Amino acid sequence: MRLTVNGRDHEVDADPDTPLLWVLRDRLGLTGTKFGCGMAQCGACTVHMDGTPVRACSTPLAAAEGVRITTIEGIEGKVADAVVQAWVALDVPQCGYCQSGQVMAAAALLAENPRPSDTDIDAAMSGNICRCATYQRIRAGIHEAARLLEA
Amino acid sequence: MLPFRRAAAQPLSRRRFLVVSGAAGAGLTLAFHIPGAAAAGPAASAAPAAVSPFNAYLTVAPDGTVTVLSAHLDMGQGIYSGIATLVAEELDADPVAVRVEGAAGNPALYGNVAWGGAAQGTGGSTAMTSSFERYRRAGATARAMLVAAAAAEWKVPAAEVTVASGAVTHPSGRRAGFGDLAAAAAALPVPEDVPLKPPGAWTLIGTEAFRRVDSRAKATGRQIFTIDLSLPGMLTAVIARPPLFGATVASVDDAAARAVKGVVAVVPISRGVAVIARDTAAALKGREALTVEWDRSAAETRGSDALMAEYRRLAAQPPTAVAERRGDPDSAFAGAARTIEASYEFPFLAHAALEPLDAVARRDGDVVEVWGGHQIPDLYQALAARAAGVTPDKVRLHVMMTGGGFGRRAVADGDVVVEAVECARAIDWQAPVKVLWTREDDMTGGRYRPMYLHTVRAALDAAGNPVAWKHRIVGQSILAGTPFEGMVRDGVDVTSVEGVSNTPYTLPNLLVELTTTKTGVPVLWWRSVGHTHTAYVMETMIDELAAAAGRDPVEYRRALLRDHPRHRAVLDLAAEKAGWGDPLPAGRFRGVAVHESFHTYVAQVAEIAMDERGGFRVERVVCAVDCGIAVNPDQIRAQVEGGVGFGLGAVLHSQITLTDGVVDQGNFDTYRVLRMDEMPAVEVHIVPSAEPPTGIGEPGVPPIGPAVANALAAATGRRVRVLPFDRAESA
Questions:
Q1: What pTM was computed for the model?
Q2: Does the beta-carbon distance from A132 to B236 stay under 8 Å?
Q3: What CATH number belongs to A78-150?
């Protein structure tokens, strides 16, 4: 199977039903994308497929062929930079395990909606669990990133 | 998470602990005694009078980067950043040039001071208490040695050498980085009793200047957790585990599993059957193809409803122990103006840290290495040694940054650590093996916050003041049957009753009884341990008494806390900042709770908004906290914010139930936790203090449940006494 991840093409010998998550992590060494639940409940494995956030744990390899996959390692541009800058400025992470997924979800939200309301944030981010409950700082981080992007 | 207190150097059972006489002046040291294992922990040899900080507590790279070696596991609570702050403060290091790594394998250096110093471990919110003196001293001593090295090299008096932001300078214009001087400094004699900065001279401690050391790595996916490790040739194992607690393997048909592409081996281990494969996907597929017959003859087959019914029956029987008795409760009840009774039911709770349990083991030469979120390293070293068939000195632990813990990584039998070693040994150490638990493995794997039943009777005098209080707690002991069993005193596991037996409220006639139950469901400490349920009961009952007395809940508490100024100070501060007593918009209601845990005092005022259907949302939580000296104020705020969210999700939604012994929940679809849309706005106010620092990882959790419950009672008159709220609503 042929995958395009972070702008690079990879030839992967795996069954088409293999979850994209394990291909990214175990075959391509892209460990920034995390395993948290395996059934699209927690969002720790959020990656972008053609810019749309998806859960890699529940995306079979077959569905990932022919699309542009972006992981936390490959995300770049103004929006991603603003999110990371805001996350660092506010010290958002605690254990940090969910934060790759949070950043990917937040970047996708901001790319589509540069000035999200709290309601927009709730809708876009409630699929991403943070067991440390850093939600307040994630919310503030998204607002801060929006401010940085506007500035 | 561990229930140790600063006074934990109490007598311990000799059966389970090996107590050896330590160095002169060091008092007793203790080590874990594990049947069948060689003695672990400190030998009786004395630690050197003055320990060189170099390579013990910090290393300095040629470029000046300071790497602090942390005695404590960071599972998100930020202790790496806290310890780095202490070192950087005294070292006058450049904060951005400070890194932190986990350390292990030397209890003399890393033993938890708050536990008596002899065993390394993180828990009971003790890490800052344990580190405050140790790591400031390490920084100050290293600084003195760097200064001495500079003075020697420059042939100037040491008193003329200054250090600031990682640079060592002399008025003559000479200048050196830490990296230029470290080798010479480390070779010098270690000075004793280097003075520490007075608090007035602190520039990092107590300020916002030192930020988390790990935010950028975690925001960019570059932070490496145990699950991310890749060693040459490494294999991944998942384990087929018993469907019931106490079931064992009867027979295995592994033909189909072995036929799965990528599966390398299927081996029995102590806790099930391991499927070892070239990668995770293959291991999971192999496990699906595996057929295991289980022997259920010794398994727990009761459901949680049956267990709670049994607890209700036991609550009416004589207790197994008395935890606290003050005054003469019976007489006081006889003379009371009125009595109020209530019973409370708490479910099992899973920790559900987002990084699943994992560990990596390999043998390199004659040394067995284990990577993991090692919360009790000396114990795990001994357990790993036993599982590997080597002596503890041949085990090397690597302490990894860890994706959440909440108590789950401090287990008496070192579960995933032992599993990784057993798997690697089962394939004759031919490859490193990573053991990974799936979410379902974790959710159904036990080690829950125990289920508890409380029954309370309170007697009020004519003025509405409580004159007597009888309290029964029914539930499992966390400590019984573990190497920590020696902490059970006179039949009382303090983790079952803490928060009730030591209540600060003026209750002249108090009886706290405990009925310790036995079930086959494994239990464990869960972020804030006994306080998860005791604070809920105490703080909702007190609220109910205030309502019965027709008194304001804050004023009622203040009066009953007259001998407890730190409780009162946080209560007053939270009430003031929340605008307690000020009118609220229609549909909004407040509730308050105050509770001390781990020597830290927290008050919270929760504000809820009712909706038309009788539901509610927690909108705002105002917190006041007194944790002694606030080393990193922003991380204290972060821990309390997170504690509120963690505790709120649990009281609203979380429960583990069992049907005929089988756990009903498997993943986050059925085990609900807090998500973004339910997170309230949390404000945290810190009480200025010159007291030594106390815990902060856990104390934010206990008050949120009762604060919300009290707000709901203010709104509706309804008292939620069966948790979670979801269950009460559906009942």
A1: 0.94
A2: no
A3: 1.10.150.120
